[in-house]
Structures are given as C-alpha cells and as structure tokens.
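Hi W., the protoporphyrin IX containing FE complex you wanted:
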Amino acid sequence: MLALAVAPLVAQGVIARRRRVVALAGKLGTDDRGVGLLQQLNETYGPGPLRLRIPGRSVAVPLVADDVRRVLDGAPEPFSPANREKRGALRHFQPHGVLVSRGAARADRRRFNEAVLDTGRPLHRYADAITRVVREESRHLRADVDADGVLTWDTFITAWWRVVRRVVLGDGARDDHRLTDQLTALRRTANWSALVPRSGARHARLRNRLRTHLDRAEPGSLAAMIATVPATPETDAVDQVPQWLFAFDPAGAVALRALALLAAHPNETARVRADLDGRDLDTPQDLPRLRAAVLESVRLWPTTPLLLRDTTAPTDWNGAALPAGTAVLIATSYFHRDDRSRPDADRFDPDQWLDGRAAGDWSLVPFSAGPASCPGRELVLFTTSTMLAALLEHHTHTVLPPTKLDPAHPLPRGLDPFAVRLAVTPTSPPQVPGD
Ligand code: HEM
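Structure:
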C-alpha cells in the first residue's frame, strides 16, 4: 500500500517531469489516491514512521509533523540530504552540488550558495537587474500572447527560461536554448538515477558551456556574484549552477499555476491589484500578496513531492530502532493536503502565509526547512512575484478547459501545468509617458 502511494510520484519524474505521465496521473487521479492511502496507513498503524521493506534498503516514511521537524532539523547529521538515490540521480549533472555533498564540502558549498543567492533577503542584491529582465521578458511574452489572446504552457515556459538564463548567466545566455536542452537531457537521464551509466562527456559539455557564460560575469547576473564570492578548491562553483537552473525550471510551473489560481479566485485578484496599485513596478518591490499566491501554488502542488534523507547513525523512534543508512522519505503532498488536520487543505488560502499561521508549521514544507532548506527561496519568490505583477498589469486572465479550478469545490490534488491555458484580455491600455 505504501509503495502504491509513492510509485506514481516517482513515475512522474522526480528530476525532470515526464509530460505524458503527468497527464496520465491527472486522468487517473493518482496524486489524489496517494494522499488518501497515506492517511489510511496513518489511521491503521498510528503515527509511524512507517517501514517499507525493500530488499537491501531500509525505508521509513514519517506521518506526523513532529517527525518532519526532527528529520529536517537534523540535517546534515544524522539525517543527511545526500541520500543514496538522490546522489545516483544528481551525479549525472551536478556530482559536486551542495545537495549531494557531505561533511566539510557540504558546509563550504552551502556557504557559497547562500552568499550568491542572498539567502533570507526578500530583495536580492541584484534585484534591480532581475526586475528589468523580468519586465522586459514579460512584455515580449504579452506581445506573443496578444496575437491570439491565449497564454499556454509552451509560450510561458519559453519566456520563463529566457528570464532564468539571463538572471543566472547574463543577457548573453538569453537565447542559449541549447544549454537548457542539454540540461534537460541530463535531467531525463537522472530520472533513472543509478540505473543508467553516467556520461562524463555529456556532463563535461554542459560544464564547458556554463563556464563560457560564467566567464563573462555579466553585471547584475548571478555569474557576477559568483565572481565576487570567495571559493575554495572544494567549492566547485560551476557545479553549483545546474541546481539553480534545474530548480528555476519547476518554478515556471509554480508561477503559471499561481496565475491560474488567481484567475479562478477574483476576490483574491482584487486584493492583489489593490496591493499593486500605486507601486512603481519598474523598481524592485517586495510583493507579499503575490508571494503568498506563489507559496499557495507550491503548497497545493509541490514541485519536490518527496524530500529524501539517509540516516548516518542508528535512530530511535519511541523505542523502535532504525539502522544507519535508512532512507527517510517525506511525502510533501500528504502533509500539505491533509484535510483531517487542515480545514484549508484543498482550497486557496494565501492569507495563511501573511497572518503567521504557516510560519513554523512543520507540515508546510514546499521549500523544505531546517539547515538544508532551499537557499533560493527568497530569490525565486521575488522573481516569480515580479513576473506575475508584470503579467497582471492591464490584463485579466480566465482559466480555459481542460483545467478546472472551481473555488466552490476542493482543488484537485494534481494540476498538469503542461495543459494550462489562460484567456488573456487587456483591461486598459498601458500608460505611455508623455500621453
Ligand atoms: C519554486 C521553486 C523552488 C522550490 C519549490 C524549491 C524547493 C527546494 C527544496 C524542497 C529543497 C530541498 C530538497 C531536498 O532536501 O531534497 C531545495 C534545495 C535547494 N534549492 Fe530550491 N527550490 C526552488 C527554487 C530554487 C532556486 C531558484 C534555486 C537557486 C537559484 C534553488 C536552490 C536550491 C539549492 C542550492 C538547494 C540545496 C540546498 C542544500 O542542500 O543545502 N532552489 N529547494
């Protein structure tokens, strides 16, 4: 039963989403069933963690928020983020990434990541440049959409990747679609983790291409930050970058789903518009209501469905011992969508991120939590909220079939981003200076 809850998450692609399987999962309602199965297991066997017996591997699945806290707060020892399956997957494109590092190397790479990503600061040091890039690309995107009035995944993600490449690597990388394709190909291989041999040559090609962009150190890009942050021989700065590009990719799906959520919830959109009113959006802005919409999008449809840890020492769970080397698997949707404990589990509730309810709640972990939590959280919330603000300006959106988001009904537990289509209608002409 436990395997039934977990297998569909793996099948949809843990490292790169498989478009056809995601669509199939939506039709079959597997995300819906996964949450229900874990709830049933919790009711039958109590607080857990549940043990899954796979030959050669001890696996445990926490079922209560206190255990989530223990595991995530206990990084990197005794709950190491450098889990065996994750190492198997990420070695294809970032063998020295912080996420799969241990000991002194992890500490050094974490320091480096936090410095470049400006962890914890709502407005990144290069917020001016990021705002300019996002607004330029949003204007191009809108021009593409205006032709037929429908915003689709393909149009959106093309624009989003331009933003990502410019923010991370500089304007010179704007149209380097080939780089994104190379990374995507390696991520697809990574879905198969250790089952597929690693291609050193493909990884070397990716590194060389990245290095060419990084060497320019374009002002305002993360590449420029890299050039200023001290690195040690251990850091391997180039190998940290694939994780940033890789993590910015699903953020596109998060942003598009947030736009769809807003389109389906006109009252919240009115509050967002009131908050935007009178702001100069050409200058960097902390946009709490839009950030909350993005946080809801990633709570409702988490882009990291499984948080994986490996224990580095024996651990005790109310008298039950788990051996060192146990894989601990936190199924985020189960916690985010547990309608037994959360009255708002299946509805859009951005207020919880604004009124303090979500703060310190260990069952809401879309960006993980604790010492190995996402160091790019603020950067990505800033980038996505700035993009949404640009798209909402002078335009309204309506969700088109096949996506159904009815505020009167529980929101679906899976939402295929590839199928999202939004009708876009201009509300008023943009103000041209001097008019
Ligand atoms: C919506 C977008 C994002 C979400 C939901 C997200 C979520 C997460 C989660 C859940 C983890 C922990 C993974 C684990 O423990 O297995 C993580 C780690 C990480 N994320 Fe993000 N992330 C996002 C975007 C970004 C971006 C844009 C960057 C960089 C530009 C970034 C950089 C990282 C890094 C470097 C780690 C590894 C941290 C460590 O191991 O210490 N993330 N992220």
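The chain has one domain: 2-426.

W.
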